[in-house]
Amino acid sequence: SRVVLYLHGNAGHRATFLRPAFYKALTALAPPRRPAAGTAAARSNPSDGVDGGTHVVAVEYRGFGDSSSALPTQAGLQLDALAAYAYVAERVGPRTEIYIAGHSLGAGVAAFLAHNLTAA
């Protein structure tokens, strides 16, 4: 299975505009290909931690939507993204693919997150 961690733009919140339709389109994606049954790769870890298919975790930054009323800052958004990624990573199995997607402001936050995850 796969999880898409979605980081929205600065207008609205995670449920405004066409975002819910986008999430629905993502969840309709075909599940990732699995190793053939009986192979060593298939036997290595039979549990993914989440059901097959695509799941979307939409992050609500501090100061947006129904999150805290704290003033959004660059550092705060970056901390929110790191925390959201850690939350997802702790709850899925090692064979679950985690994708990071961002729109507008969220693209910058996604780039920060991807850079920090690959620099480690």
Please explain how this structure is put together:
This protein has 120 residues and is an alpha/beta fold. Helices cover 39% and strands 15% of the residues. It contains four helices and three strands. Strands 2-1-3 form a three-stranded parallel beta sheet, sandwiched between helices. Helix 3 packs across helix 4 (105-119). It is globular. The two termini are 24 Å apart. Mean pLDDT is 85; it is low at 41-48.
Low-confidence stretches: 41-48
- The Cα radius of gyration reads 16 Å
Largest sheet, spatial ordering of strands: 2-1-3
Number of helices: 4
What class, by secondary structure content?
A: alpha/beta
The N- to C-terminal Cα distance equals 24 Å
Extended strand count: 3
Globally, the shape reads globular
User: What portion of the residues fall into strands of 2 or more residues?
Assistant: 15-25%
Could you tell me the mean pLDDT? 85
- Major sheet: 3 strands, parallel
Give me the strand/helix succession.
EHHEHEH
Helix fraction bin? 25-40%
